[in-house]
């Protein structure tokens, strides 16, 4: 028998690459593996219950340290009856010779049937997926996302709490550097939980994640005055509306909402200081311990952590009934077994391909920047900034919210960070525009090739464009040569 | 079919975790795999003769370099029909992010059915075993022990010599830094061999290993005068009594014994300078070569080495019939196949669990030091000294030989090194005692919580305790605050 | 069932270890795996179509970074139903403790059935093969050879062009540092292709490869004047005679040949600057891009690259129909499946052992230099120069072309580089000879033990030998002690 790749290759780069129904299917499939267990007590032993994956190979391509993600993927594949090939160390791979990720992926895709990638750059998994003929699963890309950890997290919460709707989930620590948190808050919003942020000082959610929660996932944020007066630790509270996924047009601050929030916390999610993503390595950081959890509102709160921990979660909690973090880790095997088997189409009755195909893509237009000029992704850790990938990862953006000047932005197609200010230049007229009407018009008339975007007016001027109404300013005020 | 862990989890941290009968069972099982071979000539090829381990996964968690131990364990598991997941490099694992061993083990235990660990710290395997729900096998922990190497060594000797009783085994090189040697001498003593030490200068057996050989394994040491006059190279000779495992109360030096020792050496065991465990990297080191082995007493001596070698064993011996070191390495596969299959209970007729459960535990009491005060393990390389493990590896000791002041000591529960001098303080009376009677009384009355041990009187004083009879000295002579 | 090693162990160190017929058998076997595919479109998915290798283990022992070679070997073994053990990083292997390759190989050979080795030193694979009881496959040794890459390359060319006879293959880049190129040009010559070299400045073929092409593979080189006037990029052109493998006695330069060469290029093989093999890291390097390939003679040229590339092959060619470099990588799996299964004798109808046994060994005599004196291999990167291997890799040479003083030379048995000038000393007469007659006579009379070779007269003098006719010069002019 010869293995055959799934004709419609699906990649899991973001948690939002899975529809709600597909996430439910992952959970059902994982529960199916757990139901086979003769002994249901934790820690779970997951034997090789099936040989469905036996002709298939999973490759791990890891450019950053990992124990649990890599080993749990490998264990999952082996327990499905499949095989594994591993590149765990960039220093011993062809990356050490200067090979681009795009080339490495196209090569390794010939040796395996599904590929798990971890990389220090935001958006690297998306780049890999663009070049891979086999399914790519994001095992963590920079500070962007870590969707399979979120599947374990949500599955753990669901097992404890049946439903996520209306649950209060507090999240503590480095919310900016932790990719795990970004995937997690999207999923919480989608399943109707309320998100209470308790960041370390200066480590709040990235602006673009906040924007998406409010503008795309319909979260309402609650006024500092009413709720936070009595909940000092909570920096921001996102209340998910009755119907998630509907763009909410209500104002950002809705004081009334606060009265509806139960004061009971259903889970506290703790994350470590991601020091590899920060220049300043010594920063104050909150610790969650038994004392913190003594308050009545935490009495039934599950204590969660993606691990590893390095001091921010006291080990005295290991014997506390509320601790579920080793269960999160244990669920890594059945969840990843489910994900692999669904991506490879190994279950007749259940498959991703029976769905429409993932979370609906943004109803937005993609714009690809010409090489060598114009706007760049502003995130210094984005994969497009990596010199080795320069030729493969072009600056590419989703144009978001052009109808509303206050919300219009460009979203990098790789790292999904936002650019809120830019100017639109017209190659034919050599003019540029500071509002977004011109970009909207170019999209409407399918004339994106005629335009080029710049970070600001000065850069457009330097490139030889002039402001719409001020044609005389052309090529003055700047000695820079004009280019097109 | 779903794998199920053995209900009574057994760990192999020390060679002394296996009873003599269990070691025999390992050898019988290994011989069974060898008997399946159509061609008995060396080097042995061990095919996959069985699929008994097919639903199981072995994980290797290596924090120190290894080729033969890791690859032979992996080969053994694969040849049993099982699967393997590997973490061979701490730099690419979550240890690089600062995760404790205790956490790593609890996580990886969810992904595998048996765990082999190697670590630069003495006692690390014991710590791992304390936290692991699945069997832990020590693949070498610092300078402490390497029990599976010893199983290969003893099996090699047995294959050559039928029985170990009364055999003379000379051991050359770094006896202090070599974990292999420590497991080996315990096994030699238990199986009745005589141990002749030929250490490099300053590299004799650690004091605690010497103590155990004499005080627990019943070895008698032989006077320098009588035997060593004609055997200048031999620094110490341990003669194993007729009935090993009986605590010998005879004096350390028994000149008469020497006359009974045959002058024939049955094996010379050579070990490399363990330079990774010594601050001073350039030290004189003995070389074993053809010239050394020309003496008549070595004419039938097997030449052994755990490998790797780095010059101390001349390669001219590779073609010498007495050389068995590549056979030791070759036996790694059947021995480890046997160990894995017995730990996982894969053989109906043979199993560790049919035995009483290992080498009898020390008939001693364990004492756990309160955090933050009191006595610490004196071995600077012990796992309890590792900052990352501080919260998991508490100072914990066996109280040994309290009946005999000359032999009373504390043995670290992790690295098994000894503390010979300590004082016992009573939290209630705030007094301390320099003899061991008070500790013995506290054990007898099950009042260990009332006492706290200190390295010496000065530290007890600093902590606010005073000598039993000198109550006026309390809190004088030291400006340190009192604590309890 | 118990695996049994092939009685006549074959190693693949050089492409020349395989006869032409055996290479054809590798290709047929590989094509057999491809023919099983239901979907023949590229990229190929190679499922586990067989379990023939199921009791066998392949070990990879890599001392240099690799992604494609290691992972494609592992994928190949898994797809044959076999298992894999991996040592990918010398820093985490026993090499970190100073173990020699010879010892590592003898140990690992007990854990596996076939061994793939990669090493930074030229000739390391040959050394490994000398010590290994199981088949060794060279996965790349220094700047020496990379035969399995060449099998993929030739298979790719054959698939495109049916036959290699008379094809024009241009090769661009670092022809000196690239081991891939060395195996490749031998194979091209053997299968009758014409080789057009387009080296980067100063990076031409090593002298010994050039010598072999001309003196052993019968290539004629073409005059600069006639051909190269219109093909400026081509530095050297080797035209393979009608009957390859016949020692050509014609002159090096044959101007007439040029007129017979078609001006059409069938393939351009590009290789990266092997900066790890050069002291000077910043050197001018040619880039192959769409513009370069615009000339009519390249219109049907396959564009090949062993990958990884680091800028010398423009990515705009990725979508060019002539690009076959990802196919070369994809063929890695079926080619290596074929090689492994043939080496292990897994196919009844096809096997290497049905052939006479490889490419005919050089009809030359091997000379082994006594330790500690005399001539050394002149290649500073040869494995014999590695201090850790000094005792295992003795200076050993093939004596080549002694009939013709202009062509006589010593070829290192490991790295195959040449020594063209040497003197032959006679231990009995204490005299030395600058011509090769004395060496030829010693070979003829089987008296190689009587002679010792030196790099030049001065070294022979220093060692106490004197020139044949000038006996009075003995031990004068040099204060060095005489030795034998």
Task: Provide structural commentary.
Three copies of one chain form a homotrimer. With 484 residues, chain A is of the alpha/beta class. The first copy, chain A, has three domains: 15-146 and 330-354, Rossmann fold; 148-329, 3-Layer(aba) Sandwich (Rossmann fold); 365-473, no CATH class. Helix content of chain A is 24%, strand content 16%. Chain A is built from twelve helices and 18 strands. Chain A has helices at residues 20-35, 68-79, 101-108, 124-131, 147-161, 179-190, 207-215, 224-228, 325-330, 332-343, 437-444, 457-462; strands spanning 57-62, 83-87, 114-119, 136-141, 168-173, 194-199, 220-221, 236-239, 267-270, 302-304, 365-368, 396-400, 409-412, 418-419, 423-426, 431-433, 451-454, 466-467. In chain A, the strands form four sheets. In chain A, strands 7-8-6-5-9-10 form a six-stranded mixed β-sheet, covered by helices on one side. A four-stranded parallel β-sheet of chain A has the order 2-1-3-4. Chain A has a four-stranded antiparallel β-sheet with strand order 11-12-13-14, with no helix packed on it. In chain A, helix 1 crosses helix 10 and helix 2 (68-79) crosses helix 10 (332-343). The A-C interface holds A 1-5, 54-57, 59, 83, 85-89, 91-99, 103-104, 106-113, 133, 391-392 and C 36-39, 43-49, 62, 65-68, 71-72, 74-75, 78-79, 84, 86, 88-89, 272, 276, 307-310, 315, 326, 329-330, 332-333.
């Amino acid at each position: 028998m010869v293995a055959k790749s799934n004709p419609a290759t699906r990649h899991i780069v973001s948690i939002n690459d899975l529809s709600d129904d597909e996430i439910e299917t992952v959970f059902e499939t994982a529960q199916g593996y757990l139901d086979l267990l003769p002994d249901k007590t934790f820690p779970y032993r997951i034997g090789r219950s099936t040989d469905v994956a036996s002709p298939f190979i999973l490759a791990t391509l890891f450019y950053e340290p990992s124990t649990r993600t890599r080993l749990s993927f490998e264990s999952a594949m082996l327990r499905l009856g499949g095989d594994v090939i591993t590149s765990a160390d960039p220093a011993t791979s062809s990356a050490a010779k200067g090979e681009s990720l795009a080339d490495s992926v196209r090569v390794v895709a010939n040796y395996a049937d599904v590929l798990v990638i971890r990389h220090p750059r935001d958006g690297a998994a998306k780049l890999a997926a663009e070049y891979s003929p086999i399914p790519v699963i994001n095992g963590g890309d920079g500070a962007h996302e870590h969707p399979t950890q979120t599947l374990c997290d949500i599955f753990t919460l669901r097992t404890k709490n049946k439903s996520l709707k209306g649950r209060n989930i507090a999240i503590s620590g480095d919310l900016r550097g932790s990719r795990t948190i970004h995937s997690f808050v999207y999923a919480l919003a989608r399943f109707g939980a309320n998100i209470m942020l308790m960041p370390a000082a200066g480590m709040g959610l990235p602006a673009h994640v906040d924007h998406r929660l409010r503008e795309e996932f319909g979260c309402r944020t609650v006024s500092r005055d009413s709720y936070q007066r009595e909940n000092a630790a909570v920096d921001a509270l996102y209340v998910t509306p009755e119907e998630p996924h509907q763009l909410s047009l209500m104002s950002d601050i809705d004081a009334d909402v606060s009265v509806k929030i139960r004061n009971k916390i259903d889970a506290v999610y703790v994350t470590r200081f991601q020091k590899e993503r920060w220049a300043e390595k010594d920063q104050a950081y909150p610790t969650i311990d038994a004392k913190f959890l003594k308050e009545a509102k935490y009495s039934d709160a599950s204590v969660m952590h993606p691990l590893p921990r390095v001091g921010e979660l006291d080990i005295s909690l290991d014997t506390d009934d509320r601790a579920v973090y080793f269960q999160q880790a244990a669920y890594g095997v059945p969840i990843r077994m489910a994900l692999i088997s669904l991506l490879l189409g190994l279950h007749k009755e259940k498959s991703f391909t029976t769905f429409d195909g993932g979370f609906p893509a943004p109803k937005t237009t993609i714009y690809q920047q010409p090489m060598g000029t114009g706007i760049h992704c502003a995130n210094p850790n984005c994969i497009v900034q990596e010199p080795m990938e320069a030729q493969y990862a072009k600056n590419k953006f989703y144009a978001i919210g052009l109808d509303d000047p206050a919300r219009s932005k460009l979203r990098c197609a790789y790292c999904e960070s936002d650019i809120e200010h830019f100017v639109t230049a017209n190659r034919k007229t050599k003019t540029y525009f500071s509002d977004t009407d011109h970009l909207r018009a170019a999209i409407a008339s399918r004339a994106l090739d005629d335009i080029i975007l710049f970070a600001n007016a000065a850069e457009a001027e330097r490139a030889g464009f002039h402001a719409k109404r001020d044609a005389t300013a052309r090529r003055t005020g700047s000695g820079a040569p004009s280019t097109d």
